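Dear colleague,

Thank you for sharing your sequence with our group. We've completed the structure prediction you requested, and as agreed, I am returning the results in plain text so they can be pasted directly into your records. Please verify that the sequence below matches your submission; if there's any discrepancy, let me know and we will rerun it promptly.
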Amino acid sequence: MPTDTSADTKIFSRRESEARSYCRSFPVVFASASGSVLTDAGGREYIDFLAGCSSLNYGHNDPDMKAALIEHISQDGIAHGLDMFTDTKAAFLQTFERLILEPRGMDYKVMMTGPTGTNAVEAAIKLARKITDRRNVIAFTNAFHGMTMGALALTGNAGKRGGAGGGSLADVTHMPFENAMGDIDSLDYIEWMLDNPSSGVDAPAAFIVEPVQGEGGLNAASGEWLRGIQRLARKHGALFIIDDIQAGIGRTGPYFSFEGMDIDPDMITQAKSFSGMGLPFAALLIKPEHDIWKPAEHNGTFRGNTHAFVTARVALEKFWSNDQFEQETRRKGALLQDRLQAIAALIPGASLKGRGMMRGIDTGSGDLAGAICARCFDDGLIIETSGAHDEVVKVLAPLTTPDALFNKGLDILEAAVRSITADNKIAAE
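Please find the predicted structure tokens below.
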């Protein structure tokens, strides 16, 4: 029988790499999860406002996805098929075409990449360079696109970039995101740099942008600004890539976070909640005219994930067959906005950031945000920080969280803010 490590974390410090991170903020052994609740080995429950960093938009262990996956496995369904044709892949693609692409008038090829978001980003920039025969890619301040070397080059965070050691993070120009320069219009600045033949900025192969920067501090781009970036991409013969890995699949309301903004990306990255159930699954959506790959020119052992095809299909059928789920998410997003606005008012100088169910409070201090999140964990709420200085308390609750539980989690957050700010006030006096 396996050794019982239910409450003993020593095995992790003894055998797991120092690269582990989330467990340092939440140092308990989790044993089960359902919906929006995680339970540790001792039986204590925690409301989950992290949701696998937006990998669990539909909550933990959705019963319909779970039943479909169990049925597939029990019937000896294909577990691994490289990129061979399978019935599960066909069913997923047909459902994605019917429920996501066709209703939105979108025409994209679906490229199965490696198992996580950074693989989709790598494929996107690799393809953009192949199409344009250029090297330079324009990314933005506070961006996060992944931890493999190409995606890391696009990422702004110095701490994450430091993980590359002496490795090259070249062929990327970082430009200011919307409002990153205060009163200076970043679009005007970017256009001036690209139009000036002596700026030192090489002609770009692509622009890649997150409509809402998840790790970067919940900076939300406006439709006007995104249209401006798309215009610059077209003007300079570059591809326009939307990274919708964290902000997409319903997190801001619609399936894609840029819907209704009148933009038409050349490529869109998908991962995190793409499988519906937290299974590894990433893909790149490519305009057909840009799908110039030769067979096996870009591949990976785990491109696609047969088990994820099963759960992803069920997720689409269950949540995207009509607009009910989107409307419910929008309603909860408005509730979250109201609650966070009131909580932010308790912190001098704090402000609300984000969009939809991807919102948070910019406390102005990494220490303060960290203290709030730590107090929340003590009180049974799992929530994390984001931003350049970890100054934003970020709410990424499952979109399926019932109102009563959602408000209970927000009550814990509010109580933590009241307690921490009171402690700080007493200390200041």
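Summary note from our side: Residues 1-5 have pLDDT under 50 and may be disordered.

Kind regards,
the structure core
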